[in-house]
Amino acid sequence: QVQLVESGGGLVQAGGSLRLSCAASGRTISNYAVGWFRQAPGKEREFVAGISWRSGTTYYTNSVKGRFTMSRDNAKNTVYLQMNSLKLEDTAVYYCRAVFSAWSYWGAGTQVTVSS
Prior knowledge:
With 116 residues, this protein is mainly β. 0% of the residues lie in helices and 55% in strands.
């Protein structure tokens, strides 16, 4: 069993930055594929960024490319999402997900609110 806890959300002005963290416990997630997802009010949850456990390659949805950077620290069993140049449309609850084979785990989410 893996527990994921997101942190780092908050209220920020448009153009500002936040760094989200997803700390895992229970098992090491160094061999898990990990992703960040978000869900805005009235919308479906969408993929934001992901990182391959094998290669460390990162993937981003088009709307955040060049602004968001995902990274992982295996020693801390934590992944991060650095979000720069935030826009109003980035407002959402951000969730962390870890997947390995048939196992999939979600965190409870952290709220990110971008104001004008």
